[in-house]
Amino acid sequence: MDVKGLAAIVTGGASGLGRATAEALIAAGAKVTLLDVQEEKLKATAAEIGAVAAVCDVTSPESVQAALAVAREANGPVRINVNCAGVVHGGRIVGKNGPMDLAGFARTIQINLVGTFNVMSQCAAEMMTQDVLNADNERGLVVNTASIAAFDGQIGQAAYSASKGGVASLSLPAAREFAPKGIRVMCIAPGLFETPMMTGLPPDVYDSLIAKTLFPGRLGKASEYGRMVVQIAANPMLNGECIRLDGALRLEPR
């Protein structure tokens, strides 16, 4: 799929992996709409990179419908959907004060997993109504964001790991379901990437995390995630799979 001229929707687009993905797609010629709940930051980012801003709560069907309408009006029907919106919730399943707060666990699942499903399903429904784009009969592409914590979840990551494990598991059944309509579904599981959360850590902690990545010996760059999305779009044989983008990092139990 050549992304040039195609309409793309990126969730979590105000910063981090979402912003970098939007920048990579725009550089390749796509027309991008950013979805995020952080209204002020979202609008500033959209203005800086040349994207459309649509304030959106990914857990709300109505909010997603409204955001898709904004995107459709500005750029036409969606052809590419990249889901980067997510939150982190740490804590043991059973800590010093007893079982983990269920509300925190549920919120993580709701945003990371249910939110991804909500946006993916609505975008895919719109893609299915469009004409095919090329000789491979492609109509669209969905790329979801998991994490290596989906496979190497550490103590204290139960909520996050469960949510991202669900995202990773969506890839194959969704790809199988959407295949007759020419829509691919892929997933990327990033390792440790340079984000505000990571770069704000104490120097000794930051250095110890870098040491865990075999090669290259550094944290991933958000731009490398964005580049992977564009590469996935370009290769029609990539479908129904979760790609670890982690420099051969394997997380220890703690």
Automatic annotation (TrEMBL):
The Ketoreductase domain covers 6-191
Q: Name one Pfam family in it.
A: adh_short
What is the superkingdom listed in this entry's lineage? Bacteria
One example of the protein's molecular function in GO is: oxidoreductase activity
- InterPro entries to which the protein is assigned, alphabetical: KR_dom, NAD(P)-bd_dom_sf, Sc_DH/Rdtase_CS, SDR_fam
Q: Does the keyword Signal apply?
A: no
The answer to whether UniProt assigns keyword Transmembrane to this entry is no
Q: Which family is annotated?
A: Belongs to the short-chain dehydrogenases/reductases (SDR) family.
Q: What is this protein called?
A: NAD(P)-dependent dehydrogenase (Short-subunit alcohol dehydrogenase family)
Q: Which organism is it from?
A: Novispirillum itersonii (Aquaspirillum itersonii)
Q: What is the lineage of its organism?
A: Bacteria, Pseudomonadati, Pseudomonadota, Alphaproteobacteria, Rhodospirillales
